[in-house]
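Peptidase S8/S53 domain-containing protein structure dump, as promised
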Amino acid sequence: MTTHTPEFLGLRNGTEFWSQADYGKGVIIGLLDSGIYAAHASFNDHGVPPPPTRWKGSCDAAQCNNKLIGAKSLIAGDDSDDEEGHGTHTSSTAAGNFVTGASYNGVGTGTAAGIAPSAHIAMYKVCVARDCKSSAILAGLEEAIKDGVDVLSLSLGSSTSASFDQDPISIGTFSAVSKGILVVCAAGNSGPAQRSVTNEAPWLLTVAASSVDRSFGANIHLGNGKSIDGEALTQIANPSSELHSLLYSEEWRYCNYDYDSSITCKILVCKDNKSRAQLSEIRNIVGAGAAGVVLFNDEISGYTTIVTDYNSSVVQVTAADGEALIAYIVSTNNSSLASLAYNGTKFGVRPAPVVASFSSRGPSSFAPNILKPDILAPGLNILAAWP
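structure tokens r here:
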């Protein structure tokens, strides 16, 4: 379920390619992940026929239907419910049904759909608390093969490279591929370092993550008349155009300021360290009286902005724009001024697609003669289903 990715890929509702493929009708997609939130609107079965007779699986979710035909846990004592969100997110991205009027707090508005909205979904829960046991993965793959899936999707993998005869995904998927099942795996999130790719086996379709041509626009209007473009998932309605003092400190560069008068009515410039603690700090800082926060990427993230819902006046910018903003503050002897503005959802942003900084790079560290990843697909700032 995403409101823009299909269109970005040229899959508009009613267009020839999508309709010729019948929107994935009759295809059974098995996913190994953290479970699924069956009650989500993305998993309605409107227009989805019953599963093919070759389907031999079962569904233990509370709301199984012609869309969600399979759901089971391979973890002892657990059920197929998604307690983390990742499995729900990936399932809807792959095969969520059409949902009109979807949005995330008013941004990204449109009709949401997965890439194969008429396909069937079978979820095999193999992960809990971000821990995916090898035994559960192997059991899930065995179940999916026995149940009769056509495609397997695994957005998981080891953080380290292993020989194919020691890697559970390589072992289990070899059996799947030998039975004619297409296996699609994520390249990993350990980029941009070279040889960081996972799921390197040659029988896998290994997918890197890219941006799309959409942004959630925001601007930093500087006191010198210049402007810096950024993004903000939280779009503040009717923001003030009043100029506020910009504040940056090396000591407090990660937004770990004291909640006192030193931050009142100031726009704080901070470096993103991608921690949950920082997210909480930023919300508390704005709640304590700061006029807003400009959060700039670290050098590794570069131009990849992973938009985050701070539920407050926060604009995210690239590493280069962050350095430019600090230079402006220094040049004015800390008497610089700025205001924050929000522009809503923008399309046609260029360049796109761009490889996400976190997307793992090849080649394979275990078998350097294998060039991985195989393909690039949207995987950055994808607004999809969540429990």
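The mean pLDDT is 94.
lmk if u need the other ones
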